[in-house]
């Protein structure tokens, strides 16, 4: 058994976790100010950036940190708040879409400027453009390997299945 606590793999995973946790802590107060949880912000952003402002519930689960049942609970809560609505899939009665509403778009528009300022201050603005490009490429490589569903439903060419 390898007991090398100086193993660079431990350092790599630890730095990623520390950076993510620190960044999310910086963003948390702004989400609270707008009465959104981080996952609700993520859902609104994913829907707003998707074709037709909608995603199948299963695709939304694949793109977020939630399980399918977790997405159902979050969408239920957001639907009660008027931020999203469900839409039946016309080709598959087993599937439904989450769709961002005008209220959800408005809430996202309120949150986004401050969110982008914080992201600039505590993340992308800390790196020169070439380092940021390399980081984004690296993160996509890792994301695609560990979460191949992360982009499901995000392309116009994706058909309902």
TrEMBL record:
An annotated Gene Ontology molecular function: DNA-binding transcription factor activity
Organism in which the protein naturally occurs: Actinoplanes cyaneus
Taxon lineage: Bacteria, Bacillati, Actinomycetota, Actinomycetes, Micromonosporales
Domain of life the protein comes from: Bacteria
Listed SMART domains: HTH_MARR (SM00347)
Protein name, UniProt field: MarR family transcriptional regulator
GO BP annotations listed: response to stress
Signal peptide, first to last residue: none
Domain HTH marR-type: 6-144
InterPro entries: HTH_MarR-typ (IPR000835), MarR/SlyA-like (IPR039422), WH-like_DNA-bd_sf (IPR036388), WH_DNA-bd_sf (IPR036390)
Coiled coil (UniProt feature): none
One Pfam family, short name: MarR
């Amino acid at each position: 058994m390898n007991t090398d606590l100086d193993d660079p793999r431990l350092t790599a995973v630890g730095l990623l976790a520390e950076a993510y946790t620190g960044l999310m802590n910086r963003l948390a107060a702004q989400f609270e100010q707008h009465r959104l949880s981080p996952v609700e912000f993520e859902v609104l952003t994913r829907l707003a950036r998707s074709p037709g402002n909608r995603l199948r519930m299963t695709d939304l689960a694949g793109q977020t940190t939630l399980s399918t049942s977790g997405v159902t609970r979050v969408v239920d809560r957001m639907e009660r708040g008027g931020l999203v609505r469900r839409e039946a899939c016309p080709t598959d009665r087993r599937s439904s879409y989450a769709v961002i509403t005008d209220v959800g778009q408005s809430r996202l528009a309120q949150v986004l400027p401050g969110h982008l300022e914080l992201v600039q201050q505590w993340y992308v603005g800390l790196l020169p453009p070439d380092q940021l490009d390399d980081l984004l490429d690296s993160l996509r490589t890792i994301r695609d390997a560990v979460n191949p569903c992360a982009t499901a439903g995000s392309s116009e060419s994706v058909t309902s299945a």
